[in-house]
Amino acid sequence: MDDLPKLADNGHNWATYGSCILHAIEDEGLMGLLLGSETQPIHPAQLNG
């Protein structure tokens, strides 16, 4: 993810930036979290047992 572009201050590269961000999210397997079809994992310290 180090090669992601930065969003320009004036937003002129929004289309490219947004597309790259969505591809990175998908590549990391996080799209379900973004779409709400998956829930955030429970931190191990919060598990009983």
Labels describing this entry:
mainly alpha, elongated
What is shown here, in short?
With 49 residues, this protein is mainly alpha-helical.
Give a written overview of the molecule.
The chain is mainly α and 49 residues long. It has a domain at 14-39. It has two helices and no strands. The protein has helices spanning 14-27, 31-35. The chain is elongated, with a radius of gyration of 15 Å. The model has no long low-confidence stretch (mean pLDDT 90).
Radius of gyration: 15 Å
Q: How many angstroms separate the termini?
A: 35 Å
Helix proportion: 25-40%
Mean pLDDT score: 90
Which blocks of ≥5 consecutive residues have pLDDT under 50?
Answer: none
* Helical run tally: 2
Q: Structural class, from helix and strand content?
A: mainly alpha
Strand content: under 5%
- Biggest sheet: strands, sense, closure? none
Q: Count the strands?
A: 0
Topology as a string of helices (H) and strands (E): HH
**Outline type:** elongated
Question: Secondary structure elements and their pairing?
Answer:
Layout: H1 14-27, H2 31-35
